[in-house]
Write a structure and sequence with these properties.
- The longest helix has 25 residues, at 302-326.
- The chain has helices at 34-45, 61-72, 86-100, 115-127, 142-150, 171-177, 200-212, 251-255, 269-279, 288-297, 302-326, 351-362, 376-379, 391-401; strands at 48-49, 110-113, 133-138, 154-159, 161-163, 166-168, 182-188, 216-220, 245-250, 263-266, 329-331, 338-342, 364-365, 367-368, 382-386.
- 39% of the residues lie in helices and 16% in strands.
- It is α/β, with parallel strands linked by helices.
- The radius of gyration is 22 Å and the shape is globular.
- A seven-stranded mixed beta sheet has the order 2-10-9-8-7-3-4, sandwiched between helices. Strands 11-12-15-14 form a four-stranded antiparallel beta sheet. The chain has a two-stranded parallel sheet with strand order 1-13.
- Mean pLDDT is 94; it is low at 1-7.
- The structure holds pyridoxal-5'-phosphate (PLP).
- Residues 53, 115-117, 141, 188, 192, 220, 222, 250, 252-253, 258, 261, 263 line the site of pyridoxal-5'-phosphate.
Length: 406
């Protein structure tokens, strides 16, 4: 490999100038993720990894078979159409109508992406002008901050605060965060990492604010089917929001195929067209054969969606109870894969230090919530556990964590 301190021919002798950092300034703060560090720690210590949110069992056998069939039949092995295969776009539109009563034209109002991750990136790259402000609910999913930075935007966190065992959004705080430079609100409900599901009143107030201040809303709803208490309401269904909302979802969490990276947006034609302009130069297209399989998955009967949710609810309960018994204060999540806990009842206050020593102390890996904050001190005593794992794994984790109590 060429090195930076080899002087080019003709350079004067002397010490090399201090090398310019390779990673550009926009991304300097996003050099490494905590997930890499914690997953390495899990492997090195033989720990149970409840850090990263992916299921340890695959999605439905029939959907895997559908992907194999598509591959064998030569469907999707070459570049699929830029907006996604028509079968999947139609299935996404049907799904939005079936579950949320929203109608979208599969040809002009649906765009298939490389997971929700690309949808988020493409939406922000398409809609944010350098210097625009983007409001995001803190703590937030880690890709939001990086994508806002890549778009040259300025992130404005509005903090969800723990009150009486649940995380709450302060609507006055949200209203105060809007300025003349605000371009959009980046919402996430059900919310990772807190498990909060925004209710009807809160969404109505956010919608009113967006209309009043003429803001766009990008709504990440990848956990739309994983709501254990209450119901998921898409903000696009509120008055005035159909034309200003980009709704994002994906097959990863709903069908336990996080490796397939099939995601989508639904929005008004002008918004889809704008996002497609960015998306076509990111991946152009992806996951051809998997798109056909996910089209079938979206048409699975209600029993599939109910079963997934009920199974995860039981896992939430198992882990939440275990964590409570081990001495954590537990914020019982209404949705998602994750439970947030407060470590202060265990006599601890620094989530980073706690997570770095937990593998050695009891063979479990988890994530400090501080990584999801701009205001790190707000997240300091909280850690997040994933419960999208086999029951036997969760039971073993609970058993190991019970050592903390002694
Ligand atoms: C997992 C996750 C994503 C990423 O979804 P992919 O389809 O795997 O790209 C996006 N947003 C949130 C909140 C997530 O938890």
């Amino acid at each position: 490999m060429a090195t930076m301190d080899t002087p080019p021919p003709g350079s004067p002798p002397g010490p090399p100038a201090s090398p310019r950092p390779l990673l550009n300034r926009r991304l300097a703060e996003f050099g490494t993720t905590i997930f890499a560090e914690m997953s390495a720690l899990a492997a090195a210590t033989g720990s149970i990894n409840l850090g990263q949110g992916f299921p340890d069992t695959d999605g439905p056998e029939e959907i895997r078979e559908a992907a194999v069939r598509a591959l064998r039949d030569g469907r999707g092995n070459q570049y699929p159409p830029g907006p996604g295969v028509p079968e999947l776009r139609t299935a996404v539109a049907e799904h939005q109508r079936r579950f949320h009563g929203l109608s979208f034209d599969p040809d002009t109002e649906v765009l298939i992406t490389a997971g929700a991750t690309e949808a988020i990136a493409a939406a922000l790259l398409a809609l944010v002008e350098p210097g625009d402000e983007v409001i995001a609910l803190e703590p937030y999913y880690d890709s939001y901050a990086a994508c806002i930075a890549m778009a040259g935007g300025r992130r404005v966190p509005v903090t969800l605060r723990p009150v009486d065992g649940v995380y709450r959004l302060d609507l006055d705080e949200l209203r105060d965060a809007v300025t003349d430079r605000t371009r959009l609100i980046l919402l996430n409900t059900p919310h990772n990492p807190t498990g909060t599901v925004l209710g009807r009143e809160q969404l109505a107030a956010i919608a009113e604010l967006a209309v009043e201040r003429d803001l766009l809303v990008v709504s990440d709803e990848v956990y739309e089917h994983l709501v254990f208490d209450g119901e998921h309401l898409p903000i696009a269904s509120f008055p005035g929001m159909r034309e200003r909302t980009i709704t994002i979802s994906s097959a990863g969490k709903t069908f336990s195929f996080t490796g397939w990276k099939v995601g989508w947006i639904t929005a008004a034609p002008a918004l889809v067209s704008a996002v497609r302009s960015a998306k076509q130069y990111l991946t152009y297209v992806s996951a051809g054969p998997f798109q056909y399989a996910i089209a079938e998955a979206l048409r699975l009967p209600d029993s599939y969606f109910d079963g997934l949710r009920d199974e995860l609810r039981a896992k939430r309960d198992l882990l939440s109870t275990g964590l409570t018994d081990a001495g954590f204060a537990v914020y019982r999540p209404a949705g998602t894969y994750f439970v947030t806990t407060d470590i202060r009842p265990l006599g601890e206050s620094d989530g980073f230090a706690f997570c770095r020593t937990l593998p050695e102390r009891c063979g479990v890996v988890t994530i400090p919530n501080a990584v999801f904050y701009d205001h790190r001190e707000q997240g300091a005593p909280f850690v997040r556990f994933a419960f999208c794992k086999r029951e036997s794994v969760l039971k073993e984790a609970v058993e190991r964590l019970s050592k903390l109590r002694r």
